[in-house]
Amino acid sequence: MPRPFPLLLLVAALAATFLSSAAAGAAEPEHTLRYDTPASTWTEALPIGNGRIGAMVFGGTSEERVQINESTLWGGRPHHYTNPEAGSHLAELRQLIFAGRIEEAAAPAERVMGRPKLLMPYWLADAGNLWETQDPLWRLVRDHNRGRYMKRSGLTLSLLLCLAPLTSAQESADFRPASTNVWDAQYPRVDSKGRVEIRLKAPDAAKVRLNFWSGPKIDMVKQPDGMWSVITEPLVPGLHYYTLIVDGVEMADTGSRSFFGGSKYASAVEVPEPESTYYSIQDVPHGQVREVWYFSKVTGTWRHALVYAPPGYDEKTTERYPVLYLQHGGGEDETGWVRQGHANFILDNLIASGKAKPMLVVMAYGYARRAGAQPPDLAGKGFGSPEFRKAMQEMMSAFEADVTEALIPFVDKTFRTIPDRDHRAMAGLSMGGMQTYHITLSHLDLFSHIGGFSGAAGPFITGRDLDLKSDYNGVLADPATFAKKVHVLWLGVGTAEPERMRDGIRKLHTILTDAGIAHVYQESPGTDHEWQTWRRNLDDFAARLFR
Prior knowledge:
Blueprint: H1 5-20, E1 32-34, E2 40-48, E3 51-59, E4 65-67, H2 86-99, H3 106-113, E5 119-125, H4 136-145, H5 154-171, E6 176-177, E7 189-190, E8 196-201, E9 208-212, E10 217-219, E11 221-222, E12 227-231, E13 238-246, E14 249-251, E15 258-261, E16 264-271, E17 288-296, E18 301-309, E19 323-327, H6 336-339, H7 343-352, E20 360-364, H8 386-414, E21 424-429, H9 431-442, E22 449-453, H10 479-485, E23 488-494, H11 499-514, E24 520-524, H12 531-543
Parallel strand pairs: 19-20, 19-21, 21-22, 22-23, 23-24
Antiparallel strand pairs: 1-4, 2-3, 3-5, 6-7, 7-8, 8-12, 9-10, 9-13, 11-12, 13-14, 13-16, 15-16, 17-18, 18-20
Helix pairs in contact: 1-5, 2-3, 7-12
């Protein structure tokens, strides 16, 4: 909220009073603050991530001399306080500052400084150690921290104390527990800028590192009480997988729910997309996600799948529905599109708004091995090696057979589907996109809608461009014939994805465009090879189906 005009004049008057009272002579060393009046100011900057968090405490005594440096509250370089127990009190003070619990911070601050009147936090950008702010009050603090020695009159400090509560309200942190936390866990926390604060209690650890899979890798900082903490730079909206590396051992964060990704359960934090509701739960009719098991003669095993039934499925007993087969990516499983992707909420919202037709969505496990086949030994065999490619071909072949010979017949028998190619679609992300191209383009008798979300053109096309005349049995050779069979061909990628993936999909788009093959191509601005890209992809793709 803008400050009232009289308050701006008061701030300006305060600025003039402070600046005109700066003493001449040699500058004080940076981060060394002297108390020369009964009412004085103590400041401290704490390094966190790519910025600084500071706190101002007004009060103290006329005889105090306090030497402050950047690592004071972290127990780094030597530091000195008038109060011999200040270090332990500062640990408590720091915790409250991080939590934004300003009122509660007064008591430990008083034990450190003597007679504080106010504590306020503020964010400082670390650009050449200059604090990026246009606020006159903060500029005064910035100038002071650069080493200028300022004498303050009682009147000046009184004005500062009057202004500070309003400034504090505007500058206070707005971190909130992430929606992906376990019940009642306060960390990880996310603020309105997309910064993430993560903490871990590991008093005996020597080193802790935060590892976002598609994001920053940051050394966490140990605090005197054995708590490790870090605040990241702003992250793009979406779900971000991460782990903690504690003395070389990778582990999940116990404050976060676990999600299956990277072939293991890992932590993840949801950074909300401002003013975006398409993938969040809304007050609209909701479908149901059902677990099913089907026996596959291809694999000789019972296999698990999730099926989204649209709102009204159980009530409208005579209505039949088209089906979208929606595949997860490499290292994930059939739960990913619901738990990480929120596909059910995306469909609920699209259907409620009339943007999408009611449909069933089948999410199956994408890894398969034929009955009796032995797991391949890929130890020491890199991606793209002959052994790796052979194993990929065998898995793709087994999954293709499972989908076409076991899964589709089971779904058509169990649910009220419209069992023809015009009402059957398939899409997938990353590996699931590659599987989608391979299965659908080889079975246009079964599918008419195709979507690849960050998906490669094919598993067997390496070191060369897609050959429209021969690949996929030549179904792309005649654009007119292809357009009659395929109602939607959809490609998408995030602009921040790894260069190899991004450029490969852009090249596929160019090849299809140059050949005159009708398709939809979209780039998700600012997103990596992560779920926010694929949520956006599904939101657009599903709205185009079965029209």
